[in-house]
Prior knowledge:
Shape of chain A: globular
Oligomer: homodimer
Number of strands of chain A: 12
Radius of gyration of chain A: 21 Å
Number of helices of chain A: 11
CATH superfamily of the largest domain in chain A: Type I PLP-dependent aspartate aminotransferase-like (Major domain)
Amino acid sequence: MIYFDNSATTIAKPPEVAEAVLYAINNFGNASRSFYDAALLANREIFKTRAEISELVGLDEPLNVAFTCSATESLNLVIAGLIKKGDSVITTVTEHNSVLRPLYLAGCDLDFIDCDDEGVLRLDEIEKLIKPSTRFLVCTHGSNVTGNITDVKRIYEICKSHNITMILDISQTFGLIDVTFDMADILCFTGHKGLFGPQGTGGIIVNGSFDFDIVKTGGAGVKSFERFQQKEMPDIFEAGTHNSHGIYGLQKGVQFIKKIGTGAIHLKERKLAERFYTGIKNLKGITLYGDFSGYDRLPVISVNLEGMTSADLATSLWENYEIATRAGSHCAPLLHKRFNTVDMGMVRFSFSYFNTYEEIDICICALKNIAGY
Amino acid sequence: MIYFDNSATTIAKPPEVAEAVLYAINNFGNASRSFYDAALLANREIFKTRAEISELVGLDEPLNVAFTCSATESLNLVIAGLIKKGDSVITTVTEHNSVLRPLYLAGCDLDFIDCDDEGVLRLDEIEKLIKPSTRFLVCTHGSNVTGNITDVKRIYEICKSHNITMILDISQTFGLIDVTFDMADILCFTGHKGLFGPQGTGGIIVNGSFDFDIVKTGGAGVKSFERFQQKEMPDIFEAGTHNSHGIYGLQKGVQFIKKIGTGAIHLKERKLAERFYTGIKNLKGITLYGDFSGYDRLPVISVNLEGMTSADLATSLWENYEIATRAGSHCAPLLHKRFNTVDMGMVRFSFSYFNTYEEIDICICALKNIAGY
């Protein structure tokens, strides 16, 4: 198999990730619940993972990192914890349903930053969308459809000048490019994509303190006689038993990224994506979606071939070449409406540090064959 | 280490559990997101796990099993999804905070079934607690503190006769004794205790259909253009990427339980607990909490030794004998108030199928030494 669906989940991971999970399953107790070695071991490794992740975003505050089971859970907890019915909130037309649906559920008043024909957000229009009642801006750092990276530092500057709290979805960027706290107040991340962790991991990183309402509650191993668990980070988001097995695996993924460096990872992935782009951009009948003008892109390229639905193309790639891609609508409904691809979808190729140039070349050949060259 | 904290999490697991997780991390794609083999493999194994769990409770409805990351998440989603502010709800004084706190958060009108001095619930009093407005009863199947198993079939009969929906927390019983749908309408379970699965797994099993409100929402890989994900089981509870790695491990745990049989598991665990009980019940200064009169108990024994706090006793057991237990309040605040153990807590010994009689005997000796024999 040639695996080009790394935006959905990474399968090729540093071997130490799975080894760590194996070790944890056989050796970790329930973290924060007791003081014998196996429980303390789990507790210590969870803390160390917080520290590694905190450091990766340039923060020296391990306890500002809370663990959840996914970016979706992170976004749900943060949005439901902060945003109330009727609050005015700005978001964008490029968002994934993991951002849009929790916002719809919150019942807030939504304003959308639009994008151009290449999916680039019209940041000039943000100021016009801001009302006196606007208190939050929620957006994604990099698009899972176009691979465009948004200039979130610029958005955050605008937010700060209007006392707007900015929540950033870093599902597609964390581990691939630098993510820092000059980009937002609150970061929501997943563990199983660019961080190379296991599925079932994710989290929330905050810079500063926020008055989150409790959304999910239960036992926490401390202050058992109070009606709710602690409101401080990270307890506010961590009711119930930790997934310490998964978190320990995630720690190894994060350490791998630090060892290689996001600069080197981005460079390798850019070279793969650039080679692919150069090989296919002039194919007859191909449409590419996104802004390919700059260096700062994710290794994500979505296309359609004239005369085929995205499902047909992805099926042909899989059935005839064992190339795994993703067809369909990629959970980003507003962007597909913007691109008029609601019915046909797109075929997305998303690369990882562990892909090879040879795989890229095979895929270019396959697309040429399918296009009738 | 002699590990007697199996009610918190099981560490000794069938080896195939960790092996399955290792395999899944290196081979599974994102389930439900595409149709290449790695994605379908994950999807198929998740479905198979649903089927195994459904079968374990005597239900032939795999899609009635939804996966969450913990029993705490399950209880939060079910309680917030069904119970509204002002609803009248019956629960018990023996509940864990994973039941109590979501009920407090829901803002419902709560009535509590009391217990006697051995922690046995006064089921005769239920009828008196039922008001015309009572629509839900939420309780636990087996106490994580006393090891008492509640006659939930009797409670469910009462519920059915009053059109009350019964939600059962099976965190302590699933995998250890039979759990069936003549006990409740909705079951909330964890994966990492009696089912021997990895941490980060759990779920919800329903018998029939219920009108759950959406509590957690996001991408689901299907119907991306609707404002929310599907309201049907299991989608209603499963926004975001599955923890397919953990779920595959859980499948192996469930298969192990089916192979051995809950009857044989219960017998072995009862023998361990009975041997321990017999060995310590007459120690000078010991207090045991719970009803030890019958066969149907969980392998959980909580004690105090006169003149020591629970923390002192558990520390002594760990420091001098490498016996891992749990001290403190076990996240069951109302029961500790009932037993007057708020300050001193209790030391809990909880056994598993993988413990040995030799370990029990060593622990009895240790307690005798500490008690000054």
